[in-house]
Write a structure and sequence with these properties.
Number of helices: 10
Distance between the termini: 14 Å
Strand order of the largest sheet: 1-4-5-6-7-10-11-12
Order of helices and strands: EEEHEHEHEHHEEEHEHEHEHH
Structural class: alpha/beta
Helix content: 25-40%
Strand content: 25-35%
Low-confidence stretches: none
Mean pLDDT: 91
Number of strands: 12
């Protein structure tokens, strides 16, 4: 039986405020994360993803406080990412109110961290966040044509993004958050080729992120292989509502919650 597709707003948080830009630059204030979380919960969001986009040591206490207040406000699963470097960070976030954690840079530096986290907290708690971009012309190619990036998509690693997603599943993660750095904030639609390539090599749930701009953008991402669809600015600034997106997918024959 098909699992209903999830619609997930993403809260990119910097120093306690939601921000949004294009390709991770030109960030503008989009509101208070606790207030926005409450709105999305009431509007029928299936989950929330909360990403601390700066995750500096100075912001960590702010992050824990915002996560705690957000978790008290909403009754849907909450995934938190940004600055997670060791098992103790995960433990504290889960105790603060997160249901899942999203791991990116720390896993690139030390892949076995994913296995350690999965064994201690369960695969269902551990999400591998893959920030992928097409390899620019003139740089060393990868097999898939996509590479893993860090620093908001600005720094390439040379690691094949499709291979890395598969490796994350092998190491024990329960979900992949697939972020298209090329599409981020552009509102020109999800990167369907990237979704399709990753779907072909992983069995765990796949969350598609980056590029949502219209109701019509979401169904193609699901048909390409996404189990959940994520958006940020179109929700934060009121261009789209959760119900609109779900209605649009239902019209395309997709089961939603």
């Amino acid at each position: 039986m098909a699992v209903a597709v999830r619609v997930i707003p993403c809260l990119d948080v910097d120093a306690g405020r939601v921000v949004k830009g294009v390709n991770f630059t030109g960030l503008v204030d989009a509101g208070d994360p606790v207030e926005l979380a409450g709105v999305y919960d009431a509007e029928g969001a299936d989950e929330l993803i909360f990403l601390d986009v700066t995750a500096s040591s100075g912001n960590r206490e702010t992050t824990f406080d915002v996560v705690r207040r957000t978790a008290e406000r909403v009754f849907i699963p909450l995934t938190v990412g940004g600055g997670i470097r060791e098992v103790d960070d995960i433990d504290r976030l889960l105790r603060t109110g997160a249901d899942k954690v999203s791991i990116n840079t720390a896993a690139i530096a030390r892949p076995e961290f994913l296995g350690e986290a999965s064994r201690r907290f369960g695969a269902q708690c551990v999400v591998l966040s893959v920030d992928a971009r097409r390899v620019p012309a003139g740089e060393a190619p990868t097999e898939s044509g996509f590479e893993v990036t860090t620093h908001g998509g600005r720094r390439g690693t040379g690691i094949d993004a499709v291979w890395w997603a598969r490796r994350g599943e092998e190491l024990g993660v329960g979900e992949i958050l697939l972020n298209s750095m090329d599409a981020d904030g552009t509102r020109r639609g999800f990167d369907l080729e990237l979704i399709d390539l990753v779907r072909a090599v992983v069995d765990v749930p796949l969350v598609a992120s980056g590029g949502a701009g219209a109701v019509a953008d979401f169904a193609p991402a699901v048909h390409a292989g996404a189990d959940a669809v994520l958006a940020a600015s179109v929700f934060h600034f009121g261009q789209l509502r959760i119900a609109e997106v779900k209605d649009g997918m239902r019209a395309e024959g997709i089961e939603v919650r």
